[in-house]
Amino acid sequence: MGNANGRPAAGLSKTEMERMHRRFRRLAGGEDRLSLATLHEQPDLAGNAFVHRIFRLFDTDQDGFLTWEDFSAGIHQICGLSTEDDQSLFAFRLYDTDQSGRVSEKELADALKLSGSQLATEAQLQQIVSNTIGEHDRDRDGELSLLEFRAMLRTSQQDAENGVDF
Fold this sequence. Notes:
Elements: H1 14-27, E1 33-35, H2 36-40, H3 51-58, E2 65-67, H4 68-79, H5 84-95, H6 105-114, H7 122-136, H8 146-161
Antiparallel strand pairs: 1-2
């Protein structure tokens, strides 16, 4: 289960997981579960717009609470994102809020708003979303599949490396 460095496959040592468990219990007020509202009260997480989306992915039974098992499984999942495919699948799941297996224009716009695209007007944001979907939607269904989403990420990464900004 561990690797040559004595770390679990997800990259966290037993000591690190124990420390995370203590922090989880502290955040949960000694309870066995943690609410989204409690996470939003934490100063180091208050400004993170994706907290609720990550919470939703970790909350496996969708009851609005994270148990330690939910939380630790989610942390292991994030720490195990070693390949571009793993990372892009996780990002896709953050964007695909209705879990349809596709990212709609609304989901893409919502994610862009969360990521700080307040500099754009609503009309500009909609134009960016429409152009992005139009450029990467190979099957022309108006949404992005995982493969189309990955192509979008590669293009965005290449644009960033080449100094292209919109």
